[in-house]
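pinned: reference chain
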Amino acid sequence: MRKELNINEIEEIKNNEWIVFSTSSGNNEPHAIVAIPSRVEKDKIILSNIQMKKSIENIKLNPKCFIDVYIKEQNDKQIKIDGIGKVYDSGELFQEIKEFEETNNLPEDLKVNSIIIVEINNVEISEG
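pinned: its structure tokens
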């Protein structure tokens, strides 16, 4: 079991632009969305909650989550990440991400309500 992304995988995720972020409810009902990571680090991925109501509800009931990164340009490579999500709506990191996203990436009418930090438990790679 590998708990960290290597530098190449971090860059691949950043350059890919989007990920599939999956959660499940307390009753194990799956929920998946397409999301854009705000930050990718070797042991965590940070997402901004702009309109992720169901994902946030699910994480509060069941923190296990899954991220799938599909990279067509590399023989249909997939980076599969199991992790534990935690929701933050205050603190220094929240403020830093909120200010950056709202200043650089979001239209004026959208705001960052919270961030989700996914601590990586396992990374798997599959190709073709």
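why pinned: The CA atoms of residues 80 and 124 lie 5 Å apart. The mean pLDDT is 94.
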